[in-house]
Prior knowledge:
The protein is 31% helix and 35% strand. With 336 residues, it is of the alpha+beta class. It has two domains: 22-174, START domain (Alpha-D-Glucose-1,6-Bisphosphate, Chain A, domain 4); 181-334, Regulatory factor, effector binding domain (Multidrug-efflux Transporter 1 Regulator Bmrr, Chain A), CATH 3.20.80.10. The longest helix has 31 residues, at 144-174.
Amino acid sequence: MLKKILIGLAVLIIALLLIGFLLPGKMEVTRSTVINASAEAVFDEFNDLKKWQEWQYWSTLDKPGEATITYGEKSAGTGASYTWDGKNTGKGTITITESIPNKSVASDIEFTGSGTAKGLYTVEPEGEGTKATMNFSFDNGMNPIGRWFSVFMKGEIERAFDYGLARIKERAEAKPKFTEEITETTTAAINYVGIPSGTLSTEDEAAMNAQMGKAFGQLMNDLTKAKVQVTGAAFCLYTKWDEAAKQMEMVCALPVDEKAKVPAKYKIQQIPAGKAVKAVHHGDYRGLETTHMELNKYIELKKLTMAGAPWEMYITDPMVEKDTAAWVTEVYYPIQ
């Protein structure tokens, strides 16, 4: 009887192995959902590995203290990584191999001792929202046991993707929505000459406008007489803004070449090159207050740190273009 049982088990194992060779060698799972939020808000959830612990299904399988997460030198963007060691989730490493802002995040998912899978997370416009897609693929090659394992794991991964997308949807839709176009960029150094305003009231719009008109007129007149070429758009650098005291100070400036021979009463100064949050405002200057509020909200949301005075760059010359709807103003907040 024992001999028959052993033979039966051997036949069953052989049959399962043979069937395993007939199963698909590659397992692939894709899940999508539409989120009522910007592509940037959704992309940020995929691109920052520290946020993964807030939405991924696998983080729920280990109780507090049962898993250890160790981040690499970077936790967001290309090259970011973390290693996990969990009681129920095993061991492995996730590395972001490519990050294309507001479009896609590709990753390698190394399961210690079991090979490496590929993850791809994409965002794309869908109506007034954003379509978020998760894709997982793992090639078992000719390993019949691995092919059987993939059959059982596919449903679990689908469940994990559905869970993760639902959590990301909740998180992204809860984030502030911005009416202005806001991006993070790197600015070149700007050499300029300017005229400081002295202390003005933040509530006296007429005084601010008068100061700007007077300062830009004087600058242009002096530089023209000195035959100094202006190298870009006029801008205002806000060196002080105290909402509580309702006081502000600004420098109205024109960019010039760093070696320009400017009139003796001016000194060429510089806004150094560096990282900045940028917003593009379209329309009348009265709407710039909203732009500044949204930039501050963005910096707070992203937990960024300011690194200097913000400035407004007036791309459209209001003396040439009379239609205020056509005016374009770029606003920069330098960050660390």
